[in-house]
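Bug #2210: token dump truncated for Histidine--tRNA ligase?
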Amino acid sequence: MAEKPKKPQKLKARLPRGLEDRDPAAIRATREMVEKIRAVYELYGFEPVETPAMEYTDALGKFLPDQDRPNEGVFSFQDDDEQWISLRYDLTAPLARYVAENFDTLPKPYRSYRAGYVFRNEKPGPGRFRQFMQFDADTVGSATPAADAEICMMAADTMEALGIQRGQYVVKVNNRKVLDGVRDALGIADDGQWLTVMRAIDKLDRLGLAGVQQLLGEGRKDESGDFTKGAGLKPADIILVTSVIEQVDDADEKIAQIDLRLRDSKVGQQGREELEEIERLVRASGYGPDRIKIDPSVVRGLEYYTGPVYEVELLLDTKDEKGRPVRFGSVGGGGRYDGLVSRFRGEPVPATGFSIGVSRLQAALTLLGKLDTRPEFGPVVVTVFDRDRVADYQKMVASLRTAGIRAELYLGNPKNMGNQLKYADRRNSPCVIIQGSDEKARGEVQVKDLIEGAKAAAAIASNQEWRESRPAQFSCSEADLVAKVREVLGRHDVSWG
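Reproduced locally. Full output below:
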């Protein structure tokens, strides 16, 4: 007896971890966000540039391990000429390559912005994705702190353009030279110990001054009992660090404290002077400490920052869909990276820039109710009443589209009108067009207002009353179709995009 042929196995549809599919509402919200950010960036004189999602791995400037496949932190593959190529992990390193390659033809300073997805080869987790969107703006070729001050002001303006009011965000500014000055004052030569100090400083917002002091000393035990080993600083050194990073409202007082503690550090004094200049410039332009403030606890993670660094923090607390408290924290940041373009040029090329984490900020704005996440209205649906008159119905669709109205012909099985109306409902269509043989003989069409119909259906309990009133459905001449559909759309303020 012959064996039955095995059924072919179905391929399991599955999304890789750390990635997400996005529906029309999310895409529309992103589009609206990006256009608001773009408008602010262009107001400041920045112009667009677009670089590919892939670069030669060495151009990204990532400190990759020496191994056969350099994919630590980045997604990499080997080209047919055996050169390593990686997906970009940010938008700054590709810009540095672009500027270096086109250096002689670009105006200096070169002011540009770019938006796009970046990719991180990291372990995914809550809020940590392998692909997410950023929107950057950078000034290359200017060493003045005015360039940094301008970026901070633009960051503040962008938050407000997105509907985040003053008092709900703050742009925090520090200088890596101040932190280098702290290292000078402490006399720390060991990179590992200094990294522990930096990590402790970076936790000020979350743990408070007392928690940071523990991490700067012997270590800290958290609520679960887990112990984190500290940097092992002496009590006097801990006082020095905390006095520099402690947050105070008065910028002059903060700068004076830095001056006092780092008076013997040349690099520390340079950082203090640059912060003082940024402070002076933003205040002269009307940006108070409620919008931009000096905060020496800002660390920023990337190793290429060489001067001022900035971070945009949302100050709002809210709750997620399960009622759990959510604090958003940083939604963007950047700083000065005077060494990145220089890697390609062999000469100093000053640069400063800022990046908004669009995906992260969109999640925050959605939770805060500042983004419209309702499904967008679908097209007007022209139904097929008589199969042999598809050309007539297609002509109606064409007339609506010519008038700038989104419209589509029902392309499913036209046997059941009820199914066509269900389809229009699922498409969130504002109205449908119906024309049977009787209407055609009279030169008329039926317009069914689905939005008004849904309101009426909710208000009318009796099916008989529904049938008698026939709400939200009316006849008009074929010649008036476009005008009558426009009336329905205007009545409900329907717009697309």
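Output looks complete on our side. The longest helix spans residues 24-43. Marking as cannot-reproduce; reopen if the truncation happens again.
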